[in-house]
């Protein structure tokens, strides 16, 4: 347990951290302080150094995020740099080698012809891991670029860590021509760039094999929405189109990475109506695919788990409603079984391995656990606790999400997750419908701040995976295309009726709350079914689909974005809440960041103006410098405080 003591004594020096004890289960539920739900996670982006001697992480302290390097043997801690998260935030940090770090930063900007729109940009930096040094930027403007003054928007796309060359990495970046990716070898000490693969007009992104050779490229043609996957054929040494599909019209084919064999390409593709994992043999004619992993009900998605020690892909991080690691390597399969036995009722992921696969970092989470970090040593059989990510939220505070199924009005079977407050006594209670964003995403059984906060306040919370959600096959997800405000919205109404029939929801006390697409759905709930809900909260929601669709002309994949909304402008007008405010009967809370790069803040400003003009009850909060993802602590605090006050006022228990 020496490691446990060392880690926490070191963190005390940084943040005066005091031990959190797990109190006995209270006889009567007392709501948690609001800060328990909006605070930053203690640690993020943990990774072991290749030799397993140091632990890298982002450490959050009172709104400051510091890059932390912890020496496991001594407990020494070094902080190469930090940010106050105002101008820029860390995307991720990782080891370039045992002595050097790579850091991705993101920030909001205005660029292009329409300077009223916000965009997200990234930068890639390098710094020493164990001693003070100058931070360098790896991608600098190209003086020979086709367009003078062009600066790449995304500069942190690493396609290979070049395992046999610790001083270099491979980057894919449109440094030469906008939207056209060139592959460079970058020196992580000097920042010197050497061109490896010049851009190709039909390729938007490149993939390298485990040896660092560029072997595949993914292209996109916006005219017909066709996505093509090209591979470097080892027999002809020519680039060949291996697969293609039309975005939305056909199931995706998505390369995910190579095995140790440079001719073994793993990819996601359709199998019996669901996305599955395959591996293709690039050495054989036609590149035949072999099924690796599938599920009869849910799509397989995630990222590959590669073990350098075994020189093979050993498994995949996977979600079938519950996030988990799936291994097909027998050694790792037994290893995972041992971890699951030691930590039952949790989803346990090995998030980082040393190069010899003997030391590891484990992330453990579940219904009653918002996340804990553990460090393990397979040789000494140690598994020690490092940190709880949100330490105030213990199993005495949280509740389990129940998996529920219900029928839509047209008979379609739908799924969702129900959280019941600890005070629930088999009598209908005030209820919140919480649709997810996307809309082509999904909710699962794991912890999330919003539902945890709401159920802690005494509300029942239902998170439906309405038609158009991801994870349930291509046909189910494609019902989102052109379906905004139609059957997708009816599914939310049907969820309310289901909860009322089940004597869970009080029909006179139901509110709809959501962010992004969920925020749009909340506004549609207030306009399409004004008698169903008592209030609505929209964070970063769309309010005018016609105007939103028109902004896509500034995007590279404009045609795909427009197709997602549909081409019937009259229908888009009829499903735009800002054009239907005369139907609003309930109080509405609008919250939006003014640097939102996904949904322009103009969407909430428009809704607020329309509500004011028609003298409706509403509140509008604009977060200065706020983004789409509520990733700045003061903004998260302001949002949670506003929601708490609004719900107390308009949805009393």
Automatic annotation (TrEMBL):
<feature type="signal peptide">
    <location>
        <begin position="1"/>
        <end position="23"/>
    </location>
</feature>
<keyword id="KW-0732">Signal</keyword>
<dbReference type="GO" id="GO:0006508">
    <property type="term" value="P:proteolysis"/>
</dbReference>
<dbReference type="GO" id="GO:0004252">
    <property type="term" value="F:serine-type endopeptidase activity"/>
</dbReference>
<dbReference type="Pfam" id="PF00326">
    <property type="entry name" value="Peptidase_S9"/>
</dbReference>
<keyword id="KW-0378">Hydrolase</keyword>
<dbReference type="InterPro" id="IPR029058">
    <property type="entry name" value="AB_hydrolase_fold"/>
</dbReference>
<feature type="domain" description="Peptidase S9 prolyl oligopeptidase catalytic">
    <location>
        <begin position="451"/>
        <end position="651"/>
    </location>
</feature>
<dbReference type="InterPro" id="IPR001375">
    <property type="entry name" value="Peptidase_S9_cat"/>
</dbReference>
<protein>
    <submittedName>
        <fullName>Phospholipase/carboxylesterase</fullName>
        <ecNumber>3.1.-.-</ecNumber>
    </submittedName>
</protein>
